[in-house]
Amino acid sequence: MSIEQLALQGGLDAVILASDVGWLLMPPQRMDVLVRLAALARLDVRQLEPLQTPSEWVFDRSGLLYCPRCLFLNPIDVSVPRWLRQWLDPWAACCKEHKAALHYVGRPALQRCHNFDDVLRVIGRLEDEQRWRERAARHKANGPQWLREP
Ligand SMILES: [Zn+2]
Fold it and tell me: For the chain (length 150 residues), average pLDDT per consecutive 10?
């Protein structure tokens, strides 16, 4: 199910008024929308309030940043990937957990994502491509692994 379908079925039309990078970066929602979202997710609305994106973070962007390790390896539940609110901070540059530079996913890729599974697929492909580029660069710099002396 897409975020748009969920929003329409749940009467959450305000939710689909997201930013130019898609539904991942949404402006703060009204309390009545939060209450409906909480009911849909079977959560207490007080759990959603701290997740609101500050309005000063919501503006046109060329893409978003993320930490691939934190995205795919949630220490609370490894079977549940997550998107951290701190990555929406326009001044974030590195992962607070891993002390590594955040990776970038561009707006066109994000705009094609209709739900979080789509985001994970797109970023998984980006990460695979990056690993191949790094491997090719190492191969070009060092030659094939089997040619190197022990
Ligand atoms: Zn991280």
Answer: 80 69 87 88 90 91 95 84 93 93 96 92 95 88 66
Please state, in angstroms and rounded to a whole number, the distance separating the CA atoms of residues 144 and 27: 50
Q: How far is the CA of 43 from the centre of ligand 1 (A)?
A: 26
CA of 84 from ligand 1 middle (Å) equals 9
Residue carrying the six token digits 């492909």:
125
Residue 123 pLDDT: 96
CA of 88 to the centre of ligand 1 (A): 14
Structure tokens, 112: 């094609």
String of DSSP letters for 30-56: PHHHHHHHHHHHT--HHHHGGGPPPGG
Task: Identify which of 59, 110, 60 has the alpha carbon closest to the alpha carbon of residue 83.
Answer: 110
pTM: 0.82
Spacing, Cα 8 to ligand 1 middle (Å): 33
